[in-house]
Amino acid sequence: MIENLIDAIAKELDGDxxxxxxxxxxxxxxxxxxxxxxxxxxxxxxxxxQTPEGKKTLGMRINECKVYxxxxxxxxxxxxxxxxxxxxxxxxxxxxxxxxxxLQEGSIHPLYQTIMDLEDLYISMGYTIAEGPEIETxxxxxxxxxxxxxxxxxxxxxxxxINPELLLRxxxxxxxxxxxxxEKGKPFKIVCPGKVYRRDQDDATHSHQFMQFEGLVLGPxxxxxxxxxxxxxxxxxxxxxxxxxxxxxxxxxxxxPSVEVDVSCGICGGKxxxxxxxxxxxxxxxxxxxxxxxxxxxxxxxxxxxGFAFGIGVERITMLKYKIDDIRNFYLNDVRFLSQFKEVK
Length: 345
Ligand SMILES: [Zn+2]
Description:
Strand order of the largest sheet: 1-5-6-10-9-8-7
Helix content: 40-55%
Bound molecules: zinc ion
């Protein structure tokens, strides 16, 4: 009798577990079948009514049934856990065929683009690129460029001084001085791109920090015609092939003669328009033949070696080229402004 009952319990358990699919429910069932009030406990209570032989058989059967049920619960638990893991993995699966997030592509800064264009041009004409520190000595930045202390032309450049001998360079010309000292009287052709600093109030046309691109050519028999050629090439490369340049007399302490260089207006073709203020020309840079004093101070003999120098304002050229009307745009890092220069690579 009691043995049949135990078989029936095992059978009932099988049916009862078939629709259990979470661990909490399984725990409830386990308490129902194997707990203190479970059917096996009740079967145990029947022991006292058995013969010694019967007790032994019944005890064995109860034990088998218990082992059977525990095994069933263990199996079911493993099944549920596997199913849960499977479901979790399915949920977290990465679909590699989905389109990716679009990353914002960066662009080349227009000032850097101008510098690269100028470098390419002058390298193609045999120049090398020279660079120097932004913190300079007063000697390299002024004295060796024919601007002794107290010289009135120093007022042309309002300089950030760190102490009486050190300053933030107000022009890239000290790189020319450094190269001349290094080359010890030998000819060379260099261009020097870099940042310079002046105590200007920032406005649409002034910035306390801006970029210069200077050139220096030293050698025997260098004339103003060579300078004109080097700058005409620049104007045609940076703007367009139809441009012309003209030189106007000017003054810089480090060059003699000194010239202002104008480029013919690209909008009116030289006829005169509001952009060029009716003149047909746009002022772009200063240049000249290297002053003999400058040559001598850095170890060159002006009777054997002459040269020319020019200084291009990178912002000025870039503003003219891309029709930008406020110099501050270059330094605000506004993506709306910068992203317009994507096509230039
Ligand atoms: Zn014009």
